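Weekly modeling sync, notes
Attendees: S.R. (lead), two postdocs, one rotation student

Agenda item 3: backlog of single-chain predictions. S.R. asked that every request posted to the team notebook include the full sequence so nobody has to chase files. The rotation student volunteered to paste the first one in as an example of the format we agreed on. Action items at the bottom.

Example entry:
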Amino acid sequence: MLRTKAIRKIFLTTLTLFILLTVFTITNYKNENVLRTNLEIEDIAGLKTNVIYLLNDEGLLVQDRVLLDGSSVEEKIEKLLINLIEGSTCSFADGLSKVIPKGTIIKNVMVGNKYVTIDFSKELLNISEDKEKSMITAIVYSVMDLDDFLGVSILVEGKSLEEYPNSKEKINKILDKSIGINKNYDIT
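Predicted structure, as returned to the notebook:
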């Protein structure tokens, strides 16, 4: 009788510890449902990946990551924008496409007082009407996620871009994330 009580206590104690360990493991397990890529190497050799916004198959802007090298912020912004130009050598996952028209040249990038000014060549205007807002949004969001910038000004051949190229809808001279992303209104 004493022996069966001792075995029962050992069994209950072991079972209780097993249940507690299982519950503790499950509650502390973080399943982020994130596809890990080889670009997530921030802890190795001090390299850092940066966010870039690309179009998916549904025409929505989605985040991806890109490895940028460069000693100055201006160089990093220029390399980030080159990755957004169609036909550039950087490749991304299937289903993601670049938003800046092929042949566009980044003439100058200036950073001052937490504001960025980017001067593009006139090829930037060779964009279809259905992609022009996505292009501007991708540029603004990608650049602003690079650092704590307050706004982005876009120039074309040295002149401020005051309206979308095709729809002629007015835009601010200084753009920030308040322009919104993936705005799709279905009002019936």
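Discussion: group reviewed the output briefly. The chain is about 25% helix and 20% strand.
Action items: rotation student to repeat for the remaining queue; S.R. to check formatting next week.
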